[in-house]
Design brief:
- The chain is mostly helical.
- Helix content is about 80%, strand content about 0%.
- The chain has one domain (about 10-120): 23S rRNA-intervening sequence (de novo design (two linked rop proteins), Up-down Bundle), CATH 1.20.1440.
- Helix 1 runs antiparallel to helix 4, helix 2 runs antiparallel to helix 3 and helix 3 (about 65-90) runs antiparallel to helix 4.
- It is elongated.
- The N and C termini lie far apart (about 30 Å).
Length: about 120
């Protein structure tokens, strides 16, 4: 997919979200194999929400509207982090298995916040 037809494809925050979705979807697949369907569904939904809201917001006519979608994407990052932490607490993952993902999520959150500050209302 070399041709970039949509604005969001040129955004580093969208690309970062797409990259982190790969390991998160694999975790969700593993949760399904463990018959933890609700966790798998919630993790997939929150993960999708990150890039979906960046993409949807990039199509906004106003910076204010785009900023609102970025807020939703950022909140979805927090939701994913929460799910991962709860799965560790319940013994489904080792903390060491989620450290890199949590760090990446935190970095993406900061990137979205920094990008949001560049928008002009």
């Amino acid at each position: 997919m070399n041709e970039k037809l949509f604005r969001f494809q040129n955004l580093a925050i969208w690309e970062r979200g797409a990259e982190i979705s790969d390991p998160l979807f694999k975790l969700a697949d593993g949760l399904e194999r463990q018959r933890l369907f609700r966790f798998a569904e919630q993790l997939r939904g929150a993960t999708l929400s990150i890039t979906n809201n960046i993409a949807e917001g990039s199509g906004s006519a106003s910076a204010t509207d785009f900023a609102n979608f970025l807020n939703i994407a950022r909140r979805s990052i927090y939701e994913v982090a929460n799910i991962l932490m709860l799965l560790v607490r319940q013994g489904h993952f080792q903390a060491a298995d989620t450290v890199a993902l949590l760090r990446e999520l935190e970095e993406q959150s900061r990137m979205i916040l920094a990008f949001r500050r560049t928008l002009k209302s």
